[in-house]
Amino acid sequence: MSAPDRDRAGRGVQAVARIADCIWFRVSALMSLALITTVAVMALTMGAFEHYADASFYAQLPSSAQKEFDFLDANDMLLTPRGQNLYARYETGKSLSLKRWALTAGLLVCLPFGLIAGLLVSRYVSAPMMSIAHAARRISAADFSVRATTTQRGGLGNVVRDFNTMADALESLERDRKMTAAAISHELRTPLAVLQASLHALADGVIQPTPASFLSMVGQVQHLSRLIDDVHTLSIADVGRLALHRERLDVCEITADVLEQFRSRLENVGVAGTLDCPSQPLFVWADGGRMRQVLGNLIENVARHAHTGQRLHLALTREGADVVIALRDWGEGLPSTMQNHMFERFYRPDISRNRATGGSGLGLAIVRALMLAQDGNVRVDSRRGEGCTFFLTLPAHDDEAR
Question: Is residue 377's pLDDT more than 70?
Answer without folding.
Answer: yes
